[in-house]
Design goal:
By secondary structure, this protein is α/β, with parallel strands linked by helices. The protein is 26% helix and 22% strand. It is built from 13 helices and 15 strands. The strands form 3 sheets. Strands 3, 4, 5, 6, 7, 14 and 15 form a 7-stranded mixed beta sheet that branches. It has a 6-stranded parallel beta sheet with strand order 10-9-8-11-12-13, with helices on both faces. A two-stranded antiparallel ribbon has the order 1-2. Strand 14, helix 13 and strand 15 form a beta-alpha-beta unit. 49% of the residues are buried.
């Protein structure tokens, strides 16, 4: 089958790879009709992880069941399904508690598994014509038949639940004011989710004009950090108090204000200043224990200069960690079905799989309006 294969920093290619097969009675094979490129994929693409050449990318996958293992009971050939980026068993201590992003079974020695991602287990990615789904009864979410809302539903694999997860981590409640740092796909989903949850006012911080425009279109207040300290800009619009809650949707490749260099802890420290005393932070933005391209020796080891003293002084609570997609994807799916949510507003391009190499390059450079790309390996 054809698949997107990582060749080295800033290079992917469409290559023929081995077809997946049923390996366990609980597996299914899915014919992939939509698979999205994630900002997390760019970390590997840029050589900022330990990913080695040969890995097949793709953890945001939707398609149609082609074959089922003999132990699968809830799925049949022809079912349209979307899979969380988390690969989870459904029965370990963490999965039973709802922490499917930290499954203790699927990736021995590490809490959590995912498709096509470095250190997240042996699961081949879905930027390909087919993908094998283990523990399929647990990991597949059924969708309505047909092709309607395809670009909405594919976002249930990761970014819509992840944005919602940022709000859960920050305990966003009706009436809260919220600051979201980062207006990429996850940041926009976090801001959108805050609006769905009844936030009274949402600020979105970025410096890319197209992203800030998109944030304004959904009813949030855009804050351009290239125009001045974002925490101060937000305080000026909140009677000097700051927001009730804050969400980091940027992660460790954050850009320094007014300079063309990275400053990995700047978003965390800015949020500490943005959120009022006794507020809360949600941190779904990615941080890693090892960053080969870090700007200094400490950052390369995942050790950042965060203002813990100020955090403590203000009594700010925080939650971190990757999203437990299954905690949210069912009710978010139902909101899409009932037209209460339409997350596909973030999708800028839908392309055939063969254009993946160009799409990665343009998405990485943030050019030509590339904000979120959905690839279509096969017809729906």
């Amino acid at each position: 089958m054809r698949a997107v294969v990582y060749k080295g920093p800033f290079e992917v290619a469409i290559e023929q790879v081995e077809d997946p097969r049923i390996q366990h009675p609980n597996d299914v094979l899915v014919r992939v009709t939509s698979t999205a490129i994630c900002g997390s994929d760019l970390h590997m693409y840029e050589g900022r992880t330990a990913a080695e050449p040969g890995i097949v990318f793709g953890h945001e996958n939707l398609g149609v069941v082609e074959e089922t293992g003999e132990g699968v009971t809830s799925l049949s050939k022809g079912d349209r399904v979307v899979m969380p980026f988390n690969v989870a068993c459904g029965f370990c201590k963490n999965c039973s508690a709802g922490f499917t992003g930290f499954c203790l079974t699927v990736n021995p020695g590490f809490a959590g598994g995912a498709y096509g991602y470095v250190a997240m287990g042996p699961f081949v990615g879905g930027q390909a014509e087919y993908v094998r789904v283990p523990y399929a009864d647990f990991n597949c979410l059924k969708l309505p038949e047909g092709t309607e809302k395809e670009t909405d539903f594919v976002l249930l694999a990761d970014i819509f639940p992840t944005g919602y997860h940022g709000n859960e981590l920050a305990d966003v409640r009706p009436g809260d004011t919220v600051a979201v740092y980062g207006a990429g796909p996850v940041g926009l989903m976090a801001a959108y989710s805050a609006m769905l949850r009844g936030a009274s006012k949402v600020f979105v911080v970025d410096r890319v004009a197209e992203r800030l425009q998109k944030a304004e279109e959904i009813g949030t207040v855009p804050i351009d950090f290239s125009q001045g300290n974002p925490a101060e800009q937000i305080k000026e619009q909140t009677d000097g108090q700051g927001t009730d809650k804050g969400i980091d949707a940027v992660g460790y490749q954050a850009q320094a204000q007014g300079e063309d260099r990275e400053e990995p802890a700047i978003v965390l420290n800015s949020l500490v200043e943005t959120v009022r005393p006794t507020g809360a932070l949600g941190i779904p933005g990615l941080y890693v224990p090892s960053d080969p391209g870090g700007p200094d020796e400490q950052a390369k080891k995942g050790m950042l200069m965060v203002s813990v003293g100020r955090l403590f002084e203000k009594g700010i609570r925080l939650g971190t960690g990757q999203c437990n997609v299954k905690r949210y994807n069912r009710h978010l799916r139902d909101m899409i079905i009932e037209d209460r949510a339409k997350p596909s507003f973030v999708v800028s391009h839908e392309l055939p799989l063969d254009e993946a190499s160009s799409a990665y390059e343009k998405f990485d450079k943030r050019v030509e309006g590339y904000t979120k790309v959905v690839l279509h390996p096969q017809a729906a």
